[in-house]
Task: inverse folding
């Protein structure tokens, strides 16, 4: 549980700054620091157990059938990373308190940074690989938000998008790799995976698994050629850069490589892939960093270079190389964070980050200069500093490489050269910012003062850097040794720091130092040469690529989905026809064993009329009003068909829907021309005719084949259980409100949403101009004829009576809430037509949206009420009471549910109708209809 | 007696329905067509009631009731559209 708390505290703590985002920055910083500090303290309290070599595990089942359990693990390696994450996180929170002083966005920053901290902790503490993947993606998403923090700036948006595409894309590769890995091992638990190293390496899919997982790690850790996102992520506020891009996010990939070391490493392929990638990244980063004029840009590329260095060490595969990698990782986090903080302060104080402008700041901020000197010296690898030791460790390890042949010579030379560059850019960032003459055209001059308290996080980090440099044994013993032991599963011997003084590494160090110094002194001619080189902006290339991708997919999508409904129908029906032919090939016995019923004249006539009217609609569809009339005929005859074949519920529903549909279509018709133009030529018309004809005949044939066969359906169950289970003799209604009550609840919810959507769409829409102002011989000046108004008023109470009747008897005889609701809605619609929108609306007791909500709540609470009595959701209860005069009367909870249906139907129908009616009405009701 | 009368009545109303449809198809005016549909509704009421008596169901009378109550609302909407070019104003 302690392990879960480690993640939960920052995760839940992220809510605090979000809720109190209007508080002053100081209070927000305290709020954010509390959960971070708590996690850090908890980690420190667990240190004795970790030092003793224990692996703490915590598991809770999640989806056992998928092998998913939320299981966490804390061993030396996880502890090292978790401590870095929370420790540096606390300092960043402190730093942001000064950085965001007086800005209103601090709350958002603190929320996101805590979320990010929780996600990072999740990665390093996960025992289950799938759970780790979830946190992995979470870091990608949160970092997207953090990089795009200043979303009103174009650079921030583009940088955020780029990092998301690259890191989330890598996350997908990682997902594939982990799933494969899990299949090979048969478990996603880290303990099992780490124990199955030999099995994995011997497996045929090992190269694929390794490549996919490394792809995920490389993209996250900004390895060449995926390093591009990291410099562009510098658009983020400096605290974000300091935290994500030096201490945490990019370290996730390194963590993954260290974590899966026993399972994947120690093969030729691992060595080749990881070492070469590391070498390339190391060199590219170090070289480009030297030519960056932007302080943050320089730091970003130097981060890239250091990540490459650590990757290179991880690739070597020996326990000592792993130890050197982790040692350097700690050093890097400690010296890179203060350098970023310095960049942020300089940026705020001078308004610029360009090192061609910023010079000679030692006069203005001497304390900052001293505090920068220490991490910069560590980055350069000067003696007594932490970086000196880690760089020497690198040199020593590079000399240990014995195979393959090319590597024995290339790697030592290579790392010396990269060391040379790193000395050069370290000198540059320190010398250029604080010395090198006077400031040139600074936007803010003289630079603003920095308070001493604002320097406290830098002070702490610089002190830590010094401490590691002075007492490396201690840092090694407490931090690195348990981590390496945990990562490898083997105890690691103590490191002999005296061997660093050997001749060859010392020589390499001196070459790098002097070479770097010379390189820096020759910088001006080199800059001139560099400036003449053609400029390659990775962001532009990336954007171009993205645009191409988007255009390509747009082209594909719109090529198929061109907005033509005819085409969609033709494709759908055509596919159905082809599949139907294919499926029924060779099938001859269309008529089943059941004898045909005798045909009576009336049914035949009705069928013919129905067909004729349907054809008529298709033929006359250009003339909209006559087509609508013919549609009315089909509707009516469908109703009659339902009545003829004893489906009274269907008949009633069809009838009420039909009336409502005609009114709404007439409303729509007022916006449309009287006639639709003829757009299709005869080849297309005949094509459509053939497809539609074949599809229609096919459906008829299938219906015929099925209806003439004996078929067992579930209707007998409903018929048998309707009275005993639902207390009603009307099976249709009992199904709706009882057996399938949950479906109905979903359906009325959809209905309510649809109505509210119509309301939202038409809210600010006004179409005062009629599509076709007709003023023919039928035209009258009187909008509301008095006879109509009077008749309409008479109809209303009768309709209510009928509604109530249909509603109440619905459980036992044809009817129910849905039909009753439609009857009520039709009667009220009539009032709108006869009396006018304003007249009718002013007489409505309540708005329609509350009515819909009330209906949904009534239905929902009827369902929930059964919980109170200990039954499953929507269990219905019923009983019989005897009322004087009326007699035996049934009371069922389903009736209350049906009331909810009724209210929703009335509200939704009228909401749609009145808002459509409002569109063209000049004299509106004066207020919103809703 | 009833058994003999019902088919005759049904036939007569069916003829009425056919005549309605003829008027609906022929027109000549849109008002003729609207009225034809309205009359068709009324004839359907009779058909439903007669069919119910003939089949001795007793449960589809409500359909006739609903047509009687609401059948004319569609007609009102169409007429309103013809007279004013708008249904709800």
Result:
């Amino acid at each position: 549980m302690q392990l879960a708390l480690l993640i939960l505290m920052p995760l839940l703590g992220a809510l605090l700054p979000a809720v109190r985002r209007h508080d002053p920055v100081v209070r927000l910083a305290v709020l954010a620091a509390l959960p971070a500090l708590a996690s850090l303290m908890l980690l420190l309290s667990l240190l004795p157990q970790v030092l003793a070599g224990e692996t703490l595990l915590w598991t809770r089942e999640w989806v056992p059938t998928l092998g998913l359990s939320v299981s966490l693990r804390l061993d030396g390696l996880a502890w090292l990373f978790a401590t870095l994450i929370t420790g540096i996180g606390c300092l960043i929170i402190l730093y942001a308190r000064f950085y965001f002083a007086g800005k209103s966005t601090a709350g958002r920053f603190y929320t996101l940074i805590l979320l990010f901290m929780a996600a990072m902790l999740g990665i390093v503490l996960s025992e289950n690989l799938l759970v780790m993947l979830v946190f992995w993606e979470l870091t990608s998403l949160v970092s997207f938000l953090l990089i795009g923090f200043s979303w009103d700036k174009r650079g921030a948006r583009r940088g955020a998008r780029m990092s998301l595409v690259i890191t989330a894309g890598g996350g997908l590769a990682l997902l594939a790799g982990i799933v494969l890995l899990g299949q090979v091992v048969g478990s996603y638990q880290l303990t099992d995976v780490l124990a199955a190293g030999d099995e994995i390496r011997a497996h045929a899919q090992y190269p694929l698994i390794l490549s996919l997982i490394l792809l995920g790690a490389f993209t996250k850790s900004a390895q060449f050629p995926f390093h591009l996102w990291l410099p562009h992520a510098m658009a983020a506020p400096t605290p974000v850069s300091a935290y994500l891009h030096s201490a945490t996010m990019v370290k996730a990939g390194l963590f993954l490589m260290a974590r899966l070391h026993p399972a994947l490493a120690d093969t030729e392929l691992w060595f080749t892939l990881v070492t070469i990638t590391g070498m390339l990244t190391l060199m590219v980063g170090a070289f480009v960093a030297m030519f960056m004029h932007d302080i943050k840009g320089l730091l970003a590329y130097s981060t890239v270079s250091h990540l490459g260095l650590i990757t290179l060490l991880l690739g070597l595969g020996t326990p000592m190389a792993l130890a050197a990698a982790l040692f350097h990782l700690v050093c890097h986090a400690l010296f890179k964070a203060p350098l970023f903080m310095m960049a942020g302060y300089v940026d705020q104080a001078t308004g610029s980050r360009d090192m061609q402008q910023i010079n000679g700041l030692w006069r203005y901020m001497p304390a900052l200069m001293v505090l920068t000197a220490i991490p910069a010296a560590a980055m350069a690898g000067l003696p007594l500093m932490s970086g000196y030791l880690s760089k020497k460790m690198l040199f020593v390890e590079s000399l240990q490489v014995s195979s393959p042949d090319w590597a024995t010579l290339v790697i030592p030379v290579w790392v010396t050269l990269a060391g040379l560059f790193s000395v050069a850019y370290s000198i540059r960032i320190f010398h250029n910012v604080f010395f090198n003459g006077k400031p040139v055209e600074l936007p803010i001059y003289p630079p603003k003062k920095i308070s001493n308290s604002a320097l406290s996080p830098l002070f702490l980090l610089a002190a830590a850097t010094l401490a590691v440099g002075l007492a490396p044994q201690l840092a090694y013993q407490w931090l690195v040794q348990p981590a390496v032991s945990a990562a490898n599963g083997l105890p690691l011997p103590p490191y002999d720091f005296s061997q660093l003084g050997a001749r060859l590494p010392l020589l390499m160090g001196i070459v790098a130092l002097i070479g770097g110094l010379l390189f820096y002194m020759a910088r001006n001619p080199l800059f001139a040469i560099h400036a003449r080189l053609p400029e390659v902006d990775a962001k532009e290339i990336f954007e171009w690529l993205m645009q191409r991708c988007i255009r390509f997919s747009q082209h594909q999508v719109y090529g198929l989905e061109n907005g033509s409904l005819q085409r969609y129908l033709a494709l759908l029906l055509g596919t159905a026809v082809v599949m139907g032919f294919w499926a029924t090939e060779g099938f001859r016995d269309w008529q089943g064993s059941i004898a045909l019923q005798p045909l009576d004249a009336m049914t035949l006539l009705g069928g013919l009329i129905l067909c004729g009217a349907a054809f008529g609609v298709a033929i006359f569809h250009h003339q909209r009003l006559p087509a609508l009339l013919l549609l009315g005929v089909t509707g009516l005859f469908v109703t009659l068909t339902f009545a003829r074949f004893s489906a009274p519920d269907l008949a009633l529903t069809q009838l009420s829907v039909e009336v409502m549909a005609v009114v709404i279509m007439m409303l729509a018709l007022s916006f449309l021309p009287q006639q639709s133009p003829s757009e299709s030529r005869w080849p297309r018309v005949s094509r459509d005719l053939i497809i539609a004809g074949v599809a229609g005949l096919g459906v008829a044939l299938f219906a015929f084949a099925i209806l003439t066969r004996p078929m067992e359906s579930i209707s007998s169950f409903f018929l048998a259980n309707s009275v005993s289970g639902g207390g009603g003799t009307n099976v249709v209604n009992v199904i709706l409100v009882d057996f399938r009550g949950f479906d109905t609840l979903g359906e009325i919810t959809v209905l309510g949403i649809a109505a509210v959507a119509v309301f939202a769409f038409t809210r600010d829409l006004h179409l005062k101009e009629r599509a076709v102002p007709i003023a023919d011989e039928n035209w009258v000046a009187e909008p509301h004829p008095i006879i109509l108004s009077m008749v309409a008023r008479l109809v209303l109470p009768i309709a209510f009576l009928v509604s109530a009747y249909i509603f109440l008897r619905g459980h036992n005889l044809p009817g129910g809430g849905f039909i009753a609701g439609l009857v009520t809605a039709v009667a009220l619609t009539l009032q709108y037509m006869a009396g006018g929108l304003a007249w009718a609306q002013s007489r409505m007791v309540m708005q329609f949206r509350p009515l819909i909500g009330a209906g949904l709540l009534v239905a929902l609470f009827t369902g929930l009420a059964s919980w109170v009595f200990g039954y499953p959701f929507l269990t219905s209860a019923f009983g019989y009471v005897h009322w004087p005069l009326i007699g035996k009367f049934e009371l069922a909870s389903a009736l209350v549910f049906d009331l909810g249906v009724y209210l929703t139907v009335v509200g939704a129908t009228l909401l749609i109708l009145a808002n459509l009616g409002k569109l063209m009405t000049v004299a509106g009701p004066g207020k919103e209809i809703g | 007696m009833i058994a003999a009368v019902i088919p005759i009545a049904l036939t007569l109303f069916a003829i009425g329905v056919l005549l309605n449809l003829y008027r609906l198809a022929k027109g000549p005016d849109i008002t003729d067509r609207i009225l034809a549909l309205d009359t068709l509704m009324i004839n359907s009421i009779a058909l439903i009631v007669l069919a119910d008596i003939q089949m001795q169901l007793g449960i589809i009378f409500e359909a006739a009731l609903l047509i009687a109550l609401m059948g004319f609302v569609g007609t009102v909407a169409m007429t309103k559209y013809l007279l004013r070019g708008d249904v709800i104003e």
Residues 272 and 355 of chain A are 38 Å apart (CA to CA).
